[in-house]
Specification:
The structure holds two protein chains of two kinds.
Chain A lengths: L3 E8 L2 E6 L5 E3 L4 E4 L13 E4 H7 L4 E3 L10 H5 L20 E5 L6 E4 H7 L1 E6 L2 E8 L4 E6 L1 E2 L2 E2 L2 E6 L2 E6 L5 E3 L4 E4 L12 E5 H7 L4 E2 L3
Parallel strand pairs in A: 8-19
Antiparallel strand pairs in A: 1-2, 2-3, 3-4, 7-8, 7-18, 9-10, 10-11, 12-13, 14-15, 15-16, 16-17
Chain B lengths: L1 H21 L7 E5 L12 E6 L9 E2 L3 E3 H4 L8 E7 L2 E6 H7 L1 E6 L2 E6 L1
Parallel strand pairs in B: 3-7
Antiparallel strand pairs in B: 1-2, 5-6, 7-8
Classes of the chains: A mainly beta, B alpha+beta.
Amino acid sequence: MVEFGVSGKLIMNALVMYDRATESLWSQFLSRSVDGEFAGTELEIVPLTLTTWEAWKSAYPETIAMRKTRRTTDPYVGYYAGRSVGVIGETNVDIRLPTKELVLGIGFDDAPLAFPHSVLRSEELLNLQHAGSPTLVYFDPATDTAIAYKAEVGDVSLEFELVEANGRIMMSDTQTGSLWVPFTGQAISGELAGASLDRTHSVNAFWFSWSDFYPNTEIWSS
Amino acid sequence: MHKVVALVITALLLSYLGWLAFRGTPPGFRTIVVLERSSESGELPTELEIVTLLGFDAIPSIEDPRFVDALHADETYDPEELVLGVEIDGDARAYSVPVLSRHEIVNDVVGGKPIAVTW
């Protein structure tokens, strides 16, 4: 098992980690080592969800939470809301979107595609083909949570729509009418009950950061 | 004479401590690394500039985090507080983003899998 520490270095404003075994450097954004003994090695991505405590608890009632001693404020609250661009500014200026617009980015090196949160806010659920795979993007406007799934079970592609069931927002697939929990991608009733959708590797990032790493990115528009 | 020797030794000692802190790269130092990045759709930057702002562990990562159940967590987590949530094999965990902002990395084992949560 390898532990990671903060190297104090940045690549285009993004975190560079070091591993305590070899002191190799690792780019968070690119999920791979860029220098040292491990250079070129890729990290296995584990899907995370950026959301609110309340929404996470609702999706996973049995969850545990990292202990903290008191209520905390985020030292970067002013930064998130403000205009400043990282510590060292932009590398590849791309004016297609405002610098601090939040985007959901998928595809990465293979086929970079950014979904602006401002667009997702009005769409809430998107079915699309991306890099040859059926893809589902869900956005919860109450918490600004954006999640991307592979829209398939086995070999079967699925298309989804939002429905209300027992006062909850759920997803329903048009193929079988099964009901799925948007936050977890799990089917809880219908023919596909028990199935779960795999997550598509994604990141929620400021536009300036995504376009720095992927200057050739496409931007989703309806 | 002794003062000069003392000064030289102090200077050497401070340099050594500085080197220890930064592993040889002083703050502001920039190095270029070259990556292989394949792309179907176009050019990706393959020369990346690594900028050194601080030394290793100037921002302390978290190792061996402690956890509480949701009920106890409500004492210190606001409902609207941002978290990074992960679920592996039924083991669901939330990491406070305000805390992550101060530590940037949490090393943890979730569902038996060693992971690094990074912010």
